[in-house]
Amino acid sequence: MTVEALLSVAVGVLFATGLYLMLRRTIVRLLIGLSLIGNAANLLIFVAASLRRGVPPIAPEGAAAPPPEAADPLAQALILTAIVISFGVLGFALALTDRTVQATGTDDLDQMTEEEPEP
Amino acid sequence: MIAAAVGLCFLFALAIGVGRRSFARVPDQLAWLPGAAVLAAVIVAREEDALRLSWLPELGLQFVLRMDGLGRLFALIIACIGVLIQAYAAGYFSGKPDRERLLSLLLFFEGSMLGLAFSGDLLTLFAFWELTSVSSFLLIGFDSQSAEARKSAQQALTITAAGGLALLAGILVLGQIGGSFDLGVLASRAETIARHPSIGWAVALILLGCFTKSAQFPFHFWLPGAMAAPTPVSAYLHSATMVKAGVFLAALLTPVLGSAPLWSESLIGFGAATVVVGGIAALLQTDLKLILAYSTVQALGSLCLLIGVGTPNALHAALALLCAHALYKGALFTVAGCVDKQAGTREITRLGALARRMPVTALAGLLAGLSLIGAVAFAGFTSKELAFKSILASPDTRWLVAVMLLSALSGGGVAILVGYEVFWGKASGPTEHVREAKPIMVAAPLVLAVAGLALPLMAGLWERGLIQPALASITQGQPDKPVQPWYGVDLVLGLSLASWAIAFLVYRRHADLVHWGRAQRAFPSGTVLHAGVWTGILAFAASITRLVQNGRLRWYALATSAAVVALMVLQYAAAPGVPRVGGTGLQAFEALPLLAVMVAAVLAAASWNSLAAVASLGIVGWGLAAVYVDFGAPDLALTQLVVEALTVVLFVFVLRRLPQPRPKPDRWRLPHALFAGMVGCLMAFLAFAVTTTLPHEKVADWHAAMSVPEGQGRNVVNVILVDFRALDTLGEITVLAVAAVGVAAMYRSKLRREADR
Amino acid sequence: MNSLILRTGTTFVMPLLLVFSLFLLIRGHNLPGGGFAGGLVAAASLALYGLSNGMNASKAVLRVRPETLIAAGLLTAVVSGALGLAVRGSYLAPIWWSIGSVKVGTPILFDVGVYLLVVGVVLTMVFALSAEEPS
Q1: How far apart are CA B365 and CA B374, in angstroms?
Q2: Which residue, B646, B484, B572, B270, is CA-closest to A90?
Q3: Are residues A79 and B633, on separate chains, in Cβ contact within 8 Å?
Q4: Structural domain range at position A33
Q5: Does position C100 have pLDDT exceeding 80, yes or no?
Q6: What ipTM did this prediction achieve?
Q7: Would B154 be classed as within a structural domain?
Q8: Where are the alpha helices (DSSP H) in B374-519?
Q9: Tally of domains within chain B
Q10: Mutate which of B636, B651, B718 to test chain C, going by most C C-beta atoms within 10 A?
Q11: What confidence tier does C101 reach under pLDDT thresholds 50, 70, 90?
C-alpha cells in the first residue's frame, strides 16, 4: 500500500459522498456535499503535484532556493486560494439558503421548483 | 492631421455629451463650429501624416490611419455634409435638450466614419465599421419613447451587425490568404490572392457585409425603416454617408479582389436587383422620406453595379455619382425636413403650392431635383452620362442599359415629386399658416443644391482635385472622358430625354401607381421576414433555456458531473493505459487521518442529523490539514484549520433557523448512489493515474528557483500569491468581496423589509 | 453561549490571537503565514469573541464596519499594483526598498490588502448570518 493509493481512494470517497449529497432533496445536505466536493478537489490537486514528505517549499535562511526535495509550491498556492474561495462560496450559499427557506417555507429543493412562478 | 480629424470628432462628441448644460448656451448659429474644425483638419491633412500603431505584431495586428485619394474624397464628403447637417440639426432641435444629444451623437458618428475612410488596415476598418453601426442604431432610436423607432433601430442593428460578423469572417479569411491585413500589402499580392482556391469564401463574406450596410436587395428593407430617425440623421447617415460605407469598401477592395471570381458578378447582380426593387418602390410611396429612402436604395444599387463593372470608365462614373448623389439627396432630405417641420406633414398627397410660402426651400428643392433628374450642367447629369457611356462601352454589360434606364426614370419621378410637386403642384389644403424655415435650416439644402450646380461648372477642379486621385488609388487605367457639364448630342442624351418623358408620365399617374402598390400585399416584405426570423430565434432560445435551465438544482449537478465523466472517459479512450504501481511507502500513523476522513465523509452522507453531518465535515477538514502538514504544506494546514472552524460556525448559525431535515421519499436515491459511486471510482483512478504519470519537470521549479532572487521572499507559496501570480490573487479577493457584499445585501434588505412592516 | 468561563477566556485570548495574526501576516513572506492565514485568524478571534460576548461586543471592538475593511483591503491591493504600473510600467510589478536590513515592497502592501479584505469578508458573513439585530 502506498500513500498515493490511499490518498487516491480518499479522493474517490470524498467525490462520491459529496456528489451523492449534492443530488439530495434537502438543501442543507446539498451544502454539505458542496463542502465535501471542494475538499475533494483540493486533495486531488495536492495528490497530482507529486508528494514529498515533510519539506515545505521554504528557502532556509541565507539559501537562494528551497531544498530540491521540497514540496510543490504552485499546487499549494492554488489550493490555498481554493480553500478560501470555497469558504466564500459556502458563506454565500448558506446566506442564500437561509433566505430562501424563510421565503418559501420549505427546505425541499423539489418543492421550491414547483413553487417557482412560470416566467 | 489625419488622426487629429478622427480624434477631434470623438473629443467634441465627448465634450458636448459631458458638458451638455454649457453647450446648451451656444446659439444655434454657432453649433456647427466643431464640425467646421473637423472639416479644416480633413482639408489640411496630407498623405504623409499616416499613423501606424503596432498592437500585436506577432499576429499582424496593427492600427493604421492613412489617407489615399479615395479616402480623402469620402472624408471630404463626410466632413462637408457633416458641418451643414450639424447646423441644420441645431435649427431642427433648437432650444430642446435633444439638440446637444443629437450633436454629440452626430460627431461620434462622424469620427467613426472618418476613421473608416482613413483605415489602412482591414481590422482597423472593421472596428470603425462596427462603430458606425452602433452610432446608426443610437441615432435611429433617437426618439427612444417611440416603439416604432426602437423597433427600426433594432432591425437596422441586427441586419448591419449580422453583416458585420460576415465581414469580419471575410476579412479573416482574406488575411489568411494574403498573409496580411494591410491594404497596401494585400494590393501588391492581388494576383496570387485572386487565384487562391478559398478566395470565393472571402469574397462572399465581405460582400455580405457590404450589401447589408449599403442596403442592397434583399437586405434593403432596414433603410426605409431607419426613416424613424430625425430628418438630419436620415440626410446624413442614411443617404449621404453611412450607407455608402459598403460601396466604399467594395471600391477600396477593387484593387485586391477586382479580378477574383464572384466579385463583379455578385456586385452587378445584386446591384441591378437593388436598382429595380428600390427604383420601383420609390414611386409607390407617398411619404416624402420614404420616397427618398427607396430612391437612395436605388442609387446605392447603381453604385454597386458600376463598381462591379469595374472598368476605369465605370469606376470613374461611380465616383462622380458618389459626389452627385451625396449633394442632391442630402439637399432633398433636408428640404423634406424643412417641409415636414413647417407644414406639419410629409404626406405628398397633402402637400402642394408651398413655393410662395417657402421660397428659399423651394429653390433648393428645385435645384436638387434638377440635379437628380439629370438636367444639363448639373452634377447629376454628368454622373448619369458617364454611367451610361461606361456601360455602353463594353458589349458584356450592354444589357444593363435597361437597368440604368429604370434608374433614370425612377430618379426623374422622384425629382418631380419632391422638387416640383410639393412646391408648385396643386394645393390640397390651406397653406397660409406655413412659414419659411429658419435661415440656419435652409442653409444646408441651399448650399448642397447650389454645390450640385457649381461642381460641373468647375469641372477641372472636380476632376483633378477629387476624382482623379480617388480613381488612381483603385485602378491603373484612365477614363475616356473627364467630368464635364455637357457631352454633346449623342445616343446617351437621347436615352436621357426618353427617361425624362417616361418620368413625367409616371409623375402624372403617381396616384394610380400608389394605389396599385398598396394592392400588392401578397409579396412578403423584408420587414415581415425579419420579424419572423427574430421571433423564431427568440422562441428557439426560450425553448433551449427551458430545457437546460429547468430550475431543478439536482438536475444541474447531475448534468454537470455526467458531462465531466463523459469527457474523462473520452479522453481515456483516446489514450488508454494502466498507471504503474509505485510511489511513496505508507507509514502507519499516516493512514489514521485518511481513514478518519473517509469514515467522516461517509457519516456525513448517511446522517440525517445536520449537526452531526457538520461535525463530520469538520473532521474531514482537520484530517486533510493533517495530510497537508505531513507532506510539507504548513500554509495549507493553517488555512484549512481556521477555515474549518469558521465553516462550522457559519453552518451552526444557519442550522439554528432551518427546520430539522426529515427523510423525504426519493426514488432516485439508489441510482444517485450508484452514479456517485461510479464517479468516485473514476476520480480515484484519475488521482492515482496523475500521481504516477506526471513528468518531473514542472512549472513549480521555476517559481521555487526565482522566489528568493526575484520575489525577495523565502516562502515560495506566499511569493507566488502576492508577487508572481498576484493578478490571480487580486481576482480571487475580488470574488470574495463580491460574495461578502452579496451576503450583506441579502440581510440588509431583510432588515429594511421588517422595518417597513 | 452564555458561559462565564468562555467569556473570560475569550476576552484574554482575543487580543493574543489578533497579535498572532499580525505576526503571521508580517513573517508570511519568509515563513508559513501570510495575508490569507493572518486574516482568517484575526477574523476567527473576533468571531470567537462575538460568540461568547455577543456580536455587538465584537462589532464594538472592531470599531469600523467590516464592509469598510473589504473596501480598504481591495483598495490597498489595487493601489499596490498601480504603484508597479507607475514606476515599472507593468501592473503589479513589484518594487522593493531596503530600510536598514528590512526589505519592504509592494508585494507586502498587497498582502496587507489581502489581510484586511479577508478579515472584512469573514466578519461580514459572520455578522450577517448570526442575524443578531445591531444595537
Answers
A1: 14
A2: B646
A3: yes
A4: 3-53+69-115
A5: no
A6: 0.94
A7: no
A8: 379-392, 400-416, 422-424, 439-457, 459-461, 468-472, 491-508, 510-519
A9: 2
A10: B718
A11: confident
